[in-house]
Structure formats: structure tokens, C-alpha cells
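ok so i was messing around last nite and threw this chain in just to see what happens. nothing serious, just curious
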Amino acid sequence: MLYEIRTYDIKSGSQAEVEKRFGEAYEKRRKFSELTAFFHTEIGPLNQIIHIWSYDSMAERDRIRAAAVADKTWPPDIKDFVLSMRTEIFLPVEFSPPIVPGKYGPIFEMRTYTYPAGKLPMLKDNWERAIPERTKMSPCLAMWYSDMGALNRFVHIWPYASMNDRMETRARAQATGNWPPSALAKKEGREGVAYLAQENKIVMPSAFSPVQ
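result:
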């Protein structure tokens, strides 16, 4: 399984129209494959839409995308609103949960960490040790590492009921001394990953997003 994250920067004030057109086109596109999630940014880099698609392989991705374009109902007619577009391919870590449609949020925090080259095995080990206790406090929607596009990037997505829920949950997790994973690693005498960069954004789902 792979996940394609497509991030578009759009013109200020265009979000409602972009999502309307995207949603209308998606009703015809979905016969080829279903969206995993569709978000727009609320805090962080504004005027972004983020659509996430899952595929069994790159071959399936290429076949489905070609078929959707040949159907002449895709892509959605939003080109006049798009300022920039980028895409990345991510693979799930072994302990990342499967994403199924449903209500999780409505607030989602999307965190992206850049780790030093060669440190992915250590990162996965530290996270696998720490994540069971952390997810007893709140679920993690996804934990993925980049395979194509900007490399050495680790994305994790957390749903929350509200911004207050996010703040309170994160405070409780940190108070245990076992979170973030680097804290547990230090406690157990292991090496933590020194990230080169960290960023986050608060996103919210569109009306047609399978993940809400």
C-alpha cells in the first residue's frame, strides 16, 4: 500500500469554489478509486488543499490516473485557482493503522518531520516502542515515510475533537515522560532521532472527504 499526498496552494478566497468543483468531479472520478481524505488548512500555511489517495502499487496508480483522465471527467476544473502543485508518495510504517472511512476529528493535526539520512530504522524503532501507550490517549490516523518527492520525511496525522482536546491530550502524553518517542528512548538509554526540521498544520476535512 502507498499513499499519494497532493498539496495545492490556491488563491485566497477560492477555497469554497475549489472544493465545490473538486467534489463534483470526484463523484465521477470515484468509480476508478476512492479518496482516502481531503483536507484544507485551517492553521499553518493557509489556502492549501490536501488530497490523499491510496493505491496498491505505482502501477495501479498510473493505470487508474490514466483511466480517469481518459474518461474526460478528471481532473477537476480548478486550474484558474491553483498557484502551485506538489505530490509526494508515502509508505506506511509497519505499525501504522489502516485508514477506513469514518468520523475521527473534526480537527486533524498533520505533522511532518525531516530526519537525517539513514535514520529511518531508528525512527521506526523508537516510534514502535512509544506509540502503544500514546494511542491509549488518542488515536493516530497515519504514520508514513516518504518514498518519492522530498525524501527523509515522516508524516503523522492525529485527529482531535477540538483544539482544546489537542492541547490537553498532548500535555497528558508529555507528562508521562514517555512521549515524544525521544523522551522514552532517553529514559531507556537509547538514542533518539535529532530531526532536521519539524512542521505542523491544522487541517479540516471537506464535506466529501471519506475521513471526517
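not much to say yet. The domain at 2-205 is CATH 3.30.70.100 (Alpha-Beta Plaits).
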